[in-house]
């Protein structure tokens, strides 16, 4: 391996070393502070390496992994929001092994974002899935174990479908690298459909979404953030790469993405309408946001890559802020628990409101620009049916988000919020500032996204 190749792989190496160090420290230390520090250091170093390499040409590594802008964006994204999830993962009675698992999720997401081969695709997905299963179940409560078991069983089925799909594609093309996946036969089409169904499960697209609300309700909020932000972004980038590098039986592939997107937008928004539990409402809403991203990917718009990465870039701090604020209110906060929060915990209330405003796509928050990208992608390609579904879903979303982002300013809170750590304050302030910054100055994120896409 050359020095250039080693530099290209160094972010993944840093995260992996952090995960191994956290694993070794967990059983010998009385608290999880050392393990948290090791995992956090690995992810922070990985993010810094990617930032320092912005604009540098890619180094060829081989068929398994690519060192382009998409891979770098996905690696930095996974490392930064893995760090964010680690901040409030302690809320929920997790074990000392949890920091190592967070680093493994980030490692799997980074591998998946740079995957150019079926082997790396499978490795990244399974690293994410196996780590999330343990993180979901760690509180050992009935709801947490149910979330872990559901994800375990359904993940096994999705993995089987994905592997069978890859096998059928290989039988038709004789290739395992993405550029070699070119064909039009029935075997190839069936393989692509099975592969898409496996990816749709990890992306929480309907009808493969059933695990998502249970995970958001029963699992620790930090684990839900990993599933809803880090894992989802890695799968979206993998699909974006497949769209550009492989030729997966069009129009079946794009038609399947569109159908899954439509189902997710409708089911996610409709089921979130009457949810009184804040985490469960966020779980259903994240299904809808997966659907919006799938619609962009299915549209084939000229700037679909830019739209997807921008959407992911603003969706992450919004969901992270909402989940962190939710964690401070207890395991299963309801709409009634949120009432009057602005008087008792103004920071949590502010971060929650700003996050929900962004998820709703309202002006002044960065989510408004993300929705503009969504609608623009569908208008440019004359996808009028998809545009109608997206607009209908956004209007439904405004209703149930409004129930929660107006509640902190009326009534009186009936719960005693959980103790707040100084890092929680830093995270909430950071997410709120980023959301508003990208809302008023979206060119900052647009520049970062276009810079990443330019490195090929």
Descriptive tags:
mainly alpha, two-stranded parallel ribbon, 19 helices, 456 residues, 1% strand
Précis, in short:
The chain has 456 residues and is an all-alpha fold. The protein is built from 19 helices and two strands. Helix 1 runs antiparallel to helix 2 (33-52).
Descriptive overview:
With 456 residues, the protein is mainly α. The chain has 19 helices and two strands. Strands 1-2 form a two-stranded parallel ribbon. Helix 12 (304-328) packs antiparallel against helix 18 (422-440) and helix 16 (366-380) packs across helix 18 (422-440). The longest helix has 32 residues, at 142-173. The protein starts with a helix and ends with a helix. The model has no long low-confidence stretch (mean pLDDT 89).
Query: Can you count the helices?
Result: 19
Shape: globular
- Helix and strand succession? HHHHHHEHHHEHHHHHHHHHH
Quick one: how many beta strands? 2
N→C terminal distance: 21 Å
How are the strands of the biggest sheet laid out side by side?
A: 1-2
What fraction, in percent, of the residue positions are helical? over 70%
What ranges have pLDDT less than 50 throughout 5 or more consecutive residues? Answer: none
- Strand fraction: under 5%
Alpha-beta content class: mainly alpha
Largest sheet: 2 strands, parallel
Radius of gyration: 20 Å
Mean pLDDT: 89
Quaternary structure classification? single chain
